[in-house]
Design brief:
The protein is an all-alpha fold and 184 residues long. α5 packs antiparallel against α6 and α6 packs across α7. The protein is globular.
């Protein structure tokens, strides 16, 4: 996300508008993705209503205007859910949707961390359990999915560890994990 903001600065100059551009784009793309998802789950009429309702909700409109990672996270969670629905509707036979599902979560992880995996993960597992799908673990190709997540996420962490060493490790393990899990 920060690279996108830096690219926006490079192209349009340093300003509030260029800082907010990535969030605006992800918010806009989320509207189209909501349309596609609603059409896939229901019909074109519901898709159209959904595409009009989403940007009229206060939080979507407001957060799309802020320069934060939240709208990008929201987009990638929605994208993962979209690819899961496509994959589920093929009875888990078209593996391209599986790859795109896990890639979407991996890219979301690169933007905001574990919520990009936990939110769609718990949602989908809950759905599959409620749908009484007995082989849900096998259906989800979890081992293959973990491989895709590792290929997506680990290169950046390895590069940062190599470049910054203990300082990066202490920041990630100390500040980002310990202090968020154990705090007052």
């Amino acid at each position: 996300y920060y690279w996108m903001v830096a690219t926006s600065y490079k192209i349009f100059g340093v300003s509030l508008t260029s800082a907010r551009l990535p969030s605006v784009l992800f918010g806009t793309f989320s509207i189209g993705l909501t349309f596609l998802l609603a059409c896939r789950l229901f019909d074109n009429r519901v898709g159209l209503f959904s595409a009009f309702i989403l940007p009229s909700t206060y939080l979507h409109f407001q957060i799309s205007r802020w320069s934060t990672t939240d709208m990008a996270l929201s987009f990638f969670v929605l994208l993962a859910l979209y690819f899961f629905v496509r994959w589920f509707q093929t009875e888990f036979k078209k593996s391209i949707y599986s790859y795109l599902f896990y890639l979407s979560m991996g890219l979301g992880f690169m933007i905001k961390g574990p919520p990009a995996i936990l939110i769609p993960g718990f949602t989908i597992v809950g759905f599959l359990i409620a749908a009484k799908r007995k082989n849900w673990f096998k259906d989800l190709n979890v081992v293959q999915g973990l491989g895709i997540l590792a290929i997506t996420i680990l290169p950046w962490f390895i590069a940062m560890l190599w470049m910054h060493g203990d300082e990066f490790r202490e920041h990630i393990v100390g500040n980002e994990i310990k202090k968020r899990l154990i705090h007052d």
